[in-house]
Write a structure and sequence with these properties.
The complex is a heterodimer. By secondary structure, chain A is α/β, with parallel strands linked by helices. Helix content of chain A is 35%, strand content 25%. A 6-stranded mixed beta sheet of chain A has the order 7-8-9-4-10-11, with helices on both faces. In chain A, strands 1-3-2-5-6 form a 5-stranded mixed beta sheet. The longest helix of chain A is centred in the C-terminal third of the chain and has 17 residues. About 3% of the residues of chain A have low confidence. In chain B, 57% of the residues lie in helices and 16% in strands. In chain B, a hairpin with a 4-residue loop joins strand 20 and strand 21. The longest helix of chain B has 48 residues. Classes of the chains: A alpha/beta, B alpha+beta.
């Protein structure tokens, strides 16, 4: 199975597609000739709007590469990627940067914040860069949701790891991007702080209708998602809806076992 | 051994980051070595030249100088009768003797009456074509002059002015103007020292230069083989009863070499001084580089410490890296220095002095000095960062890498810096309060050094405040990009402080000198306005005397109310206290000079100094020798007899024009100096009748058209010329300070480049969340501009205080007016912003090109 195109292309949300992003026959290869390594092998995928999608897979499966390509951080070797109806493959750096700034939010595993800016400045940074005024009501709501109201003037070094990631979540949410990409956003946190951050992500999907794509290798993290995509050797090999942590773990054990026997 | 190995690897791993520091070392070392090689080569060249141009023994008039220069006050060379030649020819051991006549008090013009003198200030020499010249020159076309209508020119001068065979030239001397057509060209077979050479036949040379035949300026003697120069000198001297100066080739060469050596010595030490400033600036760059490398390597060093490296080993590994940097930079610097010297020689060639690379002289001390200096300075500069590296705790290995903790500017630093600055300020205050220039200059020096060190120490503390103020004014307009640039400039005040301080040093000197220079011009202008009562000044810019013909031409101009002649004479003064002051200068002028330049007096009326057998002395001289109005002073004229003159006026020392002059009237002086030895005028002043200034000015210019060597200037022109002169000197100094400023710019580039590397992850993050390349580059440029402006603000502020202090001090010497050249200061400030932009070019470009994903993934 190399395709995860299971969602109808047109939904009922005011004429906009129900698909927030899609990849068509995406190939990402490094090197050439004998040393050619294929990270993504003709991948087709649709990311549903208003859903929390987790991408899982063993190290080297191409899950991070897929996310980077979807987010316009990396270029593809062939194939197309669309954000809503905009084809982003082939866009120049300037357009891509604008796209990331205005339509995409990011949460990285670590080092999400600029050390010279305080929490609120970090949260509004993408809008500042764009020269847009943040919507104050929305900003207050986001800040409230992530529980940072008392720490907005703190510098990153004065915040705990969990708090830093919450600031990162708030930054991603504040600009109301069409889609948020998380690259192991809880990878550096203990389970309690991780659960907190995942809780916020879940709620922003359920309550605020945000679209989120998250790469993770943690079954517990994946269990917060509406849908889990499994990648192996650059292909989508399986998917699962409304998973529990146990189901995810079992499925991964399966892949592991299959990987070993084959 | 492992220490060396890790140092080597670190050095090689960071060669890019080391490159700029190496360039700084290279530039400073190159400047030192280049200066030494260049001056040594010049000396070699001149030694060879003098050796080639001197005869075994030279006989000349007693009055001529040891170097054979012939400029004397009356515009004619000192001569000896032709009989001397006959006598010398009869001396035992003389193989041959030849009489020569030549003069440097000449001007040669082409058919358009344009002067053919070298613009470099090198002399114009006219003489008879003799065997001595034939040794160092060869006739390349035409022939040597054979009659009064012919003249031969050196090929370089001919090329420069496009002269051709048959062109008519005019030789203007104190005797008159002689016209002749070019008969040939001669080219130098040795180095052309840049002089313009013209040759006449012997009789014409005598007539034209001296005004009579049968005289020579020199007799060049060649010894028979087996007779030493010293032996020959003794015999010739004895035959002439010691009435003439007799020198061996060695003595002439030595005298010449000494004169050139004096000049080269000044040049050498001035240039080495500027190299020293560049070194000082380079130290900041090196400290910064190593501080940043140590900071970036904190985790690595922590790991080394955790697995058992001692503090000493870590410390030493950094110093060994510095040693490697010093060696690489210095070796390249020595090589570049030789290149620089060759470049300077080429430049001299452009200016008319052909230097041959065959003479390139590299003393063994030059590379040794360059290497030692470069290595020692580098290692010393790296000492502080190395010590800091040694203090890194093993725990650092375990901490998250991230950006190194902000180095806070400490309280100790602030207090120490302020104390030093305060001490410097107090010393500067004492300098302004001093009533003797010599005491004051000591305080000034102390104040400059203390305030500079104080500013360097307190710089990081100031950085926080100054950068904020600059940001409010400049960066806020750039929105979030400006804000981030501000924060970045502020995040490590020590780094910003040191980078700014490097620029500060050069700019402080520029500001100080510009204030002093412009105060000099302003004070002189002010004095001219207050004291000068004449309209026109006629002079030669190479201080050649003004011939009688030219003076007559001036006097013949209509519309002039008066013309004042002005001469200077050498004399020993015997004062009433019984002391003999040797080699003083008497300024002899017409009485109207008292109106032309109204010099302030502290006692007596200056007009009275021009009465018969009267004179004036200056304040300092009067005090030193207890002279009062009416005191008799014996004046022993070099070229005449001793006069006893009465002091009728004492002039103030607080003047700029004619400072330290002692006046007497020309009529008085003429009583004691024979007419033939009376020097020509050195200046002539002309004053127009009321309302006829414009017409008189034009008429004067027309009258002096035949004498292109003299310039007529009205007061406006004169002030302009004065300003140009000071301006040229300042520009030369600025040019040399440019080296220090270039090193400082390298420092800004270095800091930014290393900062960009250090902030790779941040840059990746910002790019990921939507910062465009353009915005990123702008952010780095703005940071650079703020750092540069910080350095400029400190430097200009400090420099202006120094300059104002120097002016206050020099007010004692007549520098009354403080003039701050705001356009220059403002220009430098704005220029620094551009320097900042320029310095950020490459770092910004590289930051913009970073791959976003790789940048985020960087450790």
């Amino acid at each position: 199975m190399t395709s995860a195109v299971t969602i109808p292309r047109h939904g009922g949300t005011g004429g906009r597609t129900a698909v927030a992003a899609r990849a068509r026959q995406v190939v990402k290869a490094y090197g050439a000739g004998e040393t050619r390594v294929v990270a993504l092998d003709h991948v087709d995928v649709d990311i549903a709007r208003g859903q929390f999608t987790a991408i899982m897979g063993p190290s080297g499966s191409g899950k991070s590469t897929l996310m980077h390509c979807l987010a316009g951080l990396d270029t593809v070797t062939s194939g197309q990627i669309y954000l809503d109806e905009t084809e982003i493959t082939g866009l120049k750096d300037k357009k891509l940067t604008q796209l990331r700034r205005d339509r995409i939010g990011f949460i990285f595993q670590a080092f999400n914040l600029l050390p010279t800016l305080n929490a609120i400045e970090n949260i509004t940074l993408p809008m500042d860069i764009a020269g847009r005024k943040p919507d104050q009501d929305w900003l207050d709501r986001v800040v409230d949701t992530v529980g940072l109201a008392g720490r907005l003037k703190h510098r990153p070094t004065q915040l705990s790891g969990g708090q830093q990631q919450r600031v990162a979540v708030a930054r991603a949410l504040a600009a109301r991007p069409e889609i948020i990409f998380g690259d192991e956003p809880t990878g550096n946190l203990d389970s309690r702080a991780g659960a907190e951050v995942l809780g916020f992500l879940r709620r922003s999907v359920s309550d605020l209708g945000q679209t989120i794509v998250m790469v993770t290798h943690d079954p517990v993290a994946a269990s917060y998602a509406d849908r889990v995509l499994y990648l192996a050797d650059g292909r989508i090999v399986d998917e699962m809806y409304n998973p529990t942590a146990e189901q995810v773990l079992d499925r991964m054990k399966d892949f592991d076992a299959r990987g070993r026997t084959s | 051994m492992t220490v060396l190995k890790t140092s080597m690897r670190n050095f090689l791993a960071h060669k890019g980051r080391m490159a700029l520091s190496a360039v700084a070392v290279l530039l400073s070392v190159a400047f030192v070595c280049g200066t030494l090689v260049f001056t040594d080569t010049m000396n070699t060249t001149f030694d060879k030249l003098f050796a080639a141009t001197s005869s075994d023994v030279t006989v000349s008039a007693k009055k001529s100088s040891d170097t054979g220069e012939t400029t004397s006050g009356n515009g004619k060379p000192p001569v000896m009768p032709a009989a001397v030649l006959d006598e010398v020819q009869g001396v035992r051991g003389v193989k041959s003797a030849e009489g020569t006549v030549f003069s440097t008090s000449v001007t040669v013009v082409d058919a358009d009456k344009d002067s053919l003198s070298p613009s470099s200030g090198a002399p114009t020499i006219v003489g008879n074509w003799n065997t001595n010249d034939a040794r160092t020159m060869e006739i390349t076309s035409g022939a040597a002059p054979r009659n009064a209508g012919q003249i031969m020119v050196d090929a370089d001068t001919a090329d420069k002015h496009g002269l051709e065979l048959g062109d008519e030239l005019g030789v203007i001397t104190a005797v008159g103007t002689h016209r002749a057509k070019i008969s040939g060209f001669a080219d130098f077979t040795v180095t052309n020292p840049g002089a313009a050479m013209f040759y006449l036949d012997t009789e014409t040379a005598q007539r034209t230069l001296v005004g009579e035949t049968g005289v020579y300026t020199n007799v060049n003697v060649t010894a028979e083989s087996g007779v030493t120069d010293d032996r020959l000198k003794k015999d010739v001297s004895a035959a002439l009863d010691g009435a003439y100066k007799v020198q061996t080739a060695q003595e002439v060469a030595d005298a010449n070499a000494e004169e050139v050596g004096d000049f080269m010595g000044v040049l050498k030490y001035a240039m080495l001084g500027f190299a020293g400033i560049a070194f000082l600036v380079g130290i900041f760059l090196i400290i910064n580089t190593f501080s940043m490398l140590v900071a970036q390597r904190t985790r690595e060093i922590g790991l080394m410490r955790a697995i058992g490296s001692s503090r000493k080993q870590v410390n030493r590994s950094v110093l060994v890296e510095a040693l490697l940097l010093g060696v690489v930079g210095s070796v390249l610097g020595v090589a570049a220095g030789v290149g620089l010297a060759v470049g300077l020689m080429k430049l001299m060639g452009q200016m008319g002095m052909e230097l041959s690379t065959d003479d390139l002289t590299i003393a063994w001390t030059t590379p040794v000095l360059g290497l030692v200096l470069g290595v020692v300075v580098t290692v010393l500069a790296a000492y502080l960062p190395a010590r800091r590296a040694g203090r890194i705790s093993p725990m650092a290995a375990l901490r998250d890498a991230g950006t190194p903790a902000d180095a806070k500017a400490g309280v100790v630093r602030a207090v120490l810096g302020l104390l030093l600055t305060g001490a410097g300020g107090y010393a500067l205050y004492l300098a302004t309060a001093a009533d003797q220039a010599s005491d004051g200059s000591l305080w000034l020096g102390l104040g400059v050094v203390a305030s500079l060190i104080g500013f360097v120490v307190v710089g990081p503390v100031l950085a926080a405040g100054v950068v904020r103020v600059l940001s409010v004014v400049l960066l806020r307009a750039f929105g979030p990009v400006g804000r981030m640039a501000e924060r970045n400039a502020l995040r490590n005040p020590r780094r910003t402080g040191a980078t700014g301080a490097a620029l500060m040093i050069g700019l402080a000197l520029v500001a100080c000198l510009s204030v002093v220079g412009s105060s000099m011009v302003a004070s002189a202008t002010d004095q001219l306005d207050k004291t000068v009562g004449t309209d026109f000044i006629i002079q030669n810019d190479q201080t050649q005397p003004i011939t009688e013909q030219a003076v007559r031409a001036v006097k013949s101009v209509d519309g002039l109310e008066r013309v004042t002649e002005y001469k200077i004479l050498d004399a020993d003064l015997i004062t009433p206290d019984g002391e003999r002051s040797k080699n003083e200068t008497i300024n002899a002028a017409d009485p109207s000079y008292a109106e032309d330049v109204r010099t302030k007096t502290v006692a007596g009326d200056l007009a009275n100094a021009y009465r018969p057998d009267s004179m004036s002395v200056f304040e300092g001289f009067a005090e030193e020798h207890g002279i009062k109005i009416g005191s008799p002073v014996k004046v022993d004229f070099k070229d005449g007899t001793t006069a006893t003159l009465t002091v009728r006026a004492i002039t103030s020392d607080e003047v700029v024009v004619d400072k330290g002059a002692m006046y007497a009237s020309i009529t008085t002086v003429a009583k004691y100096v024979p007419a033939e030895d009376m020097p020509l005028d050195i200046l002539v002043f002309a004053t127009a009748k009321e309302g006829q200034q414009e017409a008189a000015y034009q008429a004067l210019k027309t009258a002096l058209h035949d004498f292109p060597q003299y310039q007529v200037r009205d007061q406006t022109d004169y002030k302009e010329a004065l300003k140009d002169q000071v301006g040229q000197l300042l520009n030369m100094i600025y040019g040399l300070l440019g080296l220090a400023i270039i090193v400082a710019i390298l420092g800004v580039v270095n800091t930014l480049a290393l900062s960009v590397v250090e902030r790779t992850r941040e840059i990746g993050l910002m790019r990921a969340i939507g910062l465009s390349r353009r915005q990123l580059r702008r952010m780095i440029r703005l940071e650079s501009v703020v750092i540069a402006l910080f350095g400029a603000l400190l430097g200009l502020g400090l420099g202006m205080v120094w300059g104002a202090t120097a002016q206050q001090l020099l007010a004692l010497e007549g520098l009354k007016v403080l003039d701050i050249p705001w356009p220059t200061i403002g220009g430098v400030f704005v220029g620094s912003a551009f320097v900042g932009l320029f310095a950020a070019l490459i770092p910004a470009f590289r930051a913009g090109r970073m791959n976003v994903l790789n940048a985020i993934a960087t450790d």
